[in-house]
Amino acid sequence: MISVVILGAGNVATHLFKAFNKVEQISVIQWYNRSTDALKTYKKEVEVIDDLSLLKEADLYILAVSDDAIKPLSSKLPFENRLVVHTSGAVGIYDIDKKHKRGVFYPLQTFSKTADVDFANVPICIEALESVDYHLLKKLAISIGSPTKKVNTDQRKVLHVAAVFVNNFTNQLYRMAHEITESEGAEFDLLKPLILETAKKVQDMSPYMAQTGPAKRNDKKTLRRHLKLLKDQHHTDIYNLLTTSIQLTHGRKKL
Amino acid sequence: MISVVILGAGNVATHLFKAFNKVEQISVIQWYNRSTDALKTYKKEVEVIDDLSLLKEADLYILAVSDDAIKPLSSKLPFENRLVVHTSGAVGIYDIDKKHKRGVFYPLQTFSKTADVDFANVPICIEALESVDYHLLKKLAISIGSPTKKVNTDQRKVLHVAAVFVNNFTNQLYRMAHEITESEGAEFDLLKPLILETAKKVQDMSPYMAQTGPAKRNDKKTLRRHLKLLKDQHHTDIYNLLTTSIQLTHGRKKL
């Protein structure tokens, strides 16, 4: 049995709590937040506290708080030499106060407040300074069904940037497609199977191999036609930059 | 029974042939290509021809050829007043020679040579000048299990541009994520569940509502950190442009 204290009340904290609470191998013994209001739904399931001096001894303290809060909160913890981890993709392991055993437990996935999370689809990137701590974190991840990977701070930071490309930026391309289709009263819904297929394709094939379309073919006529159709300068800028990007990747253009 | 002649030997032609050939309601009576070499695998299943004068009478002729070939090929067909459709997202219905009954049967999906296609995931955008032709095309699409939508030429053209955004451009973002992760020896594979989840999220939620991340939150510290990590000027350009785009959409920035 792994005893865990969760600190923080955001999406990651909440989804971790729900996942931990479902499995026998893990016991969440306390859940801390600056204000217990955010946690009141869970008061019957776990001891909820807003006072760090009430923290009990546990195998593991998970700081699922904002990036900027990790360092000060870790310093304020009224104990030392226990395992304290954060869940951030962007913050180094050494941001955790050195009085603790330190680690990182970074779930590489997008979480929303409402939707349920299947942790089988959430790779956990693990970092620890001591092998025994690494193995505890790995055991914790495996208990909730997550794949795990040992990832150092530099690797985690580039994964975090890359996640912005495949998640936030990709979603913004979907948004632009929505704007473009709506401008002619066409249905964005018609693009949904294509969106899904594009994501599925790179599960088994490299994005390089998966590329198709007018930019890759250097089909100048279609490229010109598309640019003529785009009415928003901002869409045109994105079209030009990403077309150039594809042509650089596939040798149609040289810098 | 709908009798069909397919013209062309590319991915769309091939996947349509395979789908049509599976269902009882459709009979592919001939398959034409400039060279029958490309079609030799199918000679036992269908009459394969490379001479337009051999074309038989059919309910429908499908020009699944390159955009530029649609107009000249439609003119060369040695008959008139029969239903002739093309499968392109970018070409107008009036590019088909006016001696024919004209239509468009545009499958909005990405096709690769190897992977099998489930037409339930391929919306067919249908356009026709006569109601009777529209209904025949709709019946054809339904026979292979595809959802259908009446889409006029202007709508189809913007769908085609929008498809480039959600398919080619999105795939290029995946490619950049691949480059970024590899630069630190991190595994691109760790991003695959996130890629899939991002695509799934907008199946039930608008891209506007689905957006998250540092650009939307205007988290300047993380934005700065990310820019510092990116070593390739080209990645930096994309990062800046898409961050600005998200901030324009979500009211963090005004033009």
TrEMBL record, chains A, B:
Domain of life: Bacteria
Span of domain DUF2520: 122-245
SUPFAM superfamilies: 6-phosphogluconate dehydrogenase C-terminal domain-like, NAD(P)-binding Rossmann-fold domains
Pfam families for the chain: DUF2520 (PF10728), F420_oxidored (PF03807)
Residues annotated as domain Pyrroline-5-carboxylate reductase catalytic N-terminal: 4-86
InterPro entries the UniProt entry points to: 6-PGluconate_DH-like_C_sf, DUF2520, NAD(P)-bd_dom_sf, P5C_Rdtase_cat_N, TM1727-like_C_sf
Protein name, entry field: DUF2520 domain-containing protein
Organism of provenance: Mariniflexile gromovii
